[in-house]
UniProtKB/TrEMBL annotation:
This is WD repeat domain-containing protein 83. It is found in: Cytoplasm. GO terms for cellular component: catalytic step 2 spliceosome; cytoplasm. SUPFAM superfamilies: WD40 repeat-like (SSF50978). Keywords: Cytoplasm, Repeat, WD repeat. GO terms for biological process: mRNA splicing, via spliceosome. InterPro entries: WD40/YVTN_repeat-like_dom_sf, WD40_PAC1, WD40_repeat_CS, WD40_repeat_dom_sf, WD40_rpt, WD_repeat_MORG1. WD repeats lie at residues 19-51, 157-186. Gene3D superfamilies: YVTN repeat-like/Quinoprotein amine dehydrogenase (2.130.10.10). Belongs to the WD repeat MORG1 family. Signal peptide: none annotated. It comes from Pinctada imbricata (Atlantic pearl-oyster). Pfam families: WD40.
Length: 226
């Protein structure tokens, strides 16, 4: 909220560096795959890139194509994906230096790559999640049933791209079958609070969610034979 990006040492819990440069609240933040660079998105409509290895505290690059608040960032080995309240997602190809923009229509609250890198999952503030073909921009499927009108709510896929998972403003996590777009499970939290953040384990059947001041861990039950 104070417009800074803070880098912490995990072992000691101490802050190592503070990066100042955003003119607005910092909404989202990601490391690159090597954890050498930090990318941060803000209500000042920019994505700023910070070099963790440099002693300089100024951003090494500023991406200011968004026309409204940058709400979500994802990073792969050669691409940066951003979502914005201006209703657009932007994909920056680091190999070609090109930016590809797709207009979704409603304010974007979350973006993520599918595990195979072929598609993009986009949550918007109209109670909808859309699966988009990354190259063509075609909508392949749509997932509804949850509530997302006012808050930045995370969505993601499970470890093998078979299910879509999203928080909701009604205190539940919704899980859909990717192909059929049908709700197959709901995980109940506090009914009065939004489940705003979640993260799926890259290999195991395990999900972390956050609701109000609590973090929950959900894991599949192991059978007696396993």
């Amino acid at each position: 909220m104070d417009k800074t990006v803070v880098l912490f040492d995990v072992a000691t819990g101490k802050s190592l560096r503070k990066y100042r440069g955003h003119a607005g609240v910092v909404n989202c933040i990601k490391f690159n795959e090597e954890s050498t660079v930090i990318l941060s998105g803000s209500t000042d409509n920019t994505v700023r890139i910070w070099d963790c290895k440099s002693r300089k505290l100024d951003p090494v690059q500023v991406m200011d194509e968004a026309k409204d608040s940058v709400t979500s960032i994802q990073v792969s080995d050669h691409e940066i994906l951003t979502g914005s309240a201006d209703g657009c997602i932007r994909r920056y190809d680091l190999r070609t230096g090109k930016m590809i923009k797709d207009c979704i229509g409603n304010s974007v609250s979350s973006v993520t790559f599918t595990r195979d890198g072929q598609c993009v999952l986009v949550s918007t503030l109209d109670d909808s999640i859309k699966l988009m073909d990354k190259d063509t921009g075609e909508m392949l499927n749509e997932f509804t049933g949850h509530k997302n009108r006012s808050y930045k709510i995370d969505s993601c896929l499970n470890s093998n791209d078979t299910h879509v998972i999203s928080g909701s403003e009604n205190g539940q996590v919704y899980i859909w079958d990717l192909l059929e777009a049908k709700v197959v499970e709901k995980l109940q939290h506090n009914k009065m609070r939004a489940v705003h953040s979640l993260s799926y384990h890259p290999e195991d059947t395990c999900l972390l969610t956050a609701c109000e001041d609590k973090i929950y861990m959900w894991c599949a039950e192991k059978s007696d034979a396993s």
